[in-house]
Amino acid sequence: MEPQFRDATGADVDAALGAAAAACAPYRAHGPAGISGFLDRIAAELEALGDALVDRARAETGLPPARLQNERERTLAGVRIFADLAREGSWISARIDRGNPDRTPAPKPDLRSMLVPIGPVVVFGASNFPLAISVAGNDTIGALAAGCPVVVKAHPAHPGTSDLVAGEAFSAARLADSTKRSSPTSSTPNTRPGLVQNCPTPMVTALT
User: 10 Å Cβ neighbour count for 44?
Assistant: First the structure.
């Protein structure tokens, strides 16, 4: 099937991971409004693909159209749920335990905590869920919603579907204005930014 896709090289993977690491601070800086808006736009772009997405996935996987249409709706719903969660913000689980310097026998310290993005996330796409556990699946979108850049290792069973989704998702990556942008994804020269088509085995160890 056209187009042809090549496997990522070790250099491609290193470049993708390095770019994802560089994107951490600027992506997180967009805050809940910017990140949730980004996810809203991903959902809108994917929905606008219409039957083209289902047709490509069917051609590559052999799954029936009704099954893929349901999976597309599940994927869109997941993106929108995470967008709402990022916007609402309670997921950070902020805690404030105020100190008491007069407590005896020892003063009570002031303790505060919250969940924060930990850094780049690698997502491995599944063969049997080309949409819902793939480029715009819950793993990817959940990481993006939390403020983490993502590198997706696309499954070789459906590279064109992955590339199609990535193209629409990254066309939605306009988080500030036309002169100030930061992408929550890394770049590889083989397909779309942040999308690795196959890869050598040391991909995850490169993160440590």
Answer: 14
What's the token pair of residue 130? 């080309």
Per DSSP, what are the bridge partners of residue 101? none
Strand ordering across the sheet containing 195-197: 121-124, 150-154, 195-197
Q: Where are the alpha helices (DSSP H) in the chain?
A: 10-28, 31-48, 51-61, 65-88, 138-145, 159-171
CA distances from 28 to 31, 61, 163 (A): 6, 35, 25
pTM, rounded to two decimals = 0.83
Q: Is 49 helix (H, G, I), strand (E, B) or coil?
A: coil
pLDDT in tens, the chain (208 residues): 777 787 787 888 888 888 888 888 988 999 999 999 999 999 998 999 999 999 999 999 999 999 999 999 999 999 999 999 999 999 999 999 999 999 999 999 999 999 999 899 999 889 899 999 999 999 999 999 999 998 888 888 898 899 888 887 666 665 433 333 344 544 333 344 455 555 443 434 333 3
Residues 63-75: b if buried by 16+ CB within 10 A, e if exposed: beeeebbebbeeb
Instruction: Report yes or no: 137 and 18 within 8 Å, Cβ to Cβ.
Output: no
Size (the chain), residues = 208
List the domains of the chain with CATH numbers.
10-89+120-207 (3.40.605.10)
